[in-house]
Write a structure and sequence with these properties.
- The chain has 219 residues and is an alpha/beta fold.
- It folds into 2 domains: 136 residues, Roll (CBS-domain), CATH 3.10.580.10; 72 residues, 2-Layer Sandwich (Histidine-containing Protein, Chain: A).
- It has 8 helices and 9 strands.
- A 3-stranded mixed β-sheet has the order 1-2-3. The chain has a 3-stranded mixed β-sheet with strand order 4-5-6.
- Strand 2 and strand 3 form a beta hairpin.
- The longest helix has 16 residues.
- The two termini are 27 Å apart.
């Protein structure tokens, strides 16, 4: 099975800033390009961090409402306060940046986003130079695959090439990304394995095997 690589989904024209970019330049860049974060790169285009709207807003959150009042967020950690006091990208950014490689699959990128609790991944080459950025919305693009395309991959690659099952053994129906399998298998133990493999196909929402039967219960 050929899982979609993120280099087919990512945005290649990525706006970035240098480490010495001042606060207001970063704010203008975010506003002008209508993005919520930008990678921070060094002089050779290597990614050293990411600065986001949240990083900039931390400065506002740490300011008192009026002169003489305590800060709006008095319980900031030391590192948060240092960032709130920053004036350049290298002082404001989150580092190191959470990065991915262009040949990663959609599943690998999605897992890393989930683990890190982030909405986007900076994509870098083998020398850590910026080549793109991929967002949650980009990854969701796999669910826009046509049903016929999903069915073709299951029939030809999952059932045919991987499991060596002919088209007469199983029938596959796909509707709105939902896969329905029907037919007769030699062994019951094959059913969960087929379900798992079909579920890994990009664009599959669910897999139903209620219409699968078997000759031998080998469980």
């Amino acid at each position: 099975m050929r899982h979609r690589r993120i280099d087919r989904l990512m945005t290649r024209e990525v706006v970035s800033v240098r480490g010495d970019a001042p606060f207001k330049e970063i704010a203008r860049t975010l506003s002008r390009h209508q993005v919520t974060a930008v990678p921070v790169v060094d002089g050779e285009g290597r990614v050293v961090g990411v600065v986001s709207e949240g990083d900039l807003l931390r400065k506002t959150a740490d300011q008192p409402a009026t002169p003489g009042d305590p800060p709006a967020v008095p319980a900031l950690e030391a590192w948060e306060r240092a960032k709130a006091e920053g004036t350049r990208a290298e002082e404001l950014m989150s580092a190191p940046a959470v990065c991915a490689r262009p040949d990663w699959t959609v599943a690998e990128a999605a897992r890393l986003m989930e683990v890190q609790g982030i909405k986007r991944l900076v994509v870098v080459d083998d020398e850590d130079r910026l080549v793109g950025i991929v967002s949650r919305r980009d990854l969701l693009g796999v669910f826009l695959r046509e049903d016929d395309d999903i069915r073709r991959e299951i029939v030809e690659e999952v059932l045919g090439e991987t499991l060596r099952l002919g088209p007469a053994v199983l029938t596959v129906e796909v509707r709105d990304g939902k896969v329905d399998l029907a037919g007769r298998l030699p062994f019951r133990r094959m059913i969960p394995a087929i379900e798992r493999m079909c579920a890994t196909v990009d664009g599959v929402v669910s897999v139903s095997s209620t219409r699968l039967t078997y000759d031998v219960d080998d469980t």
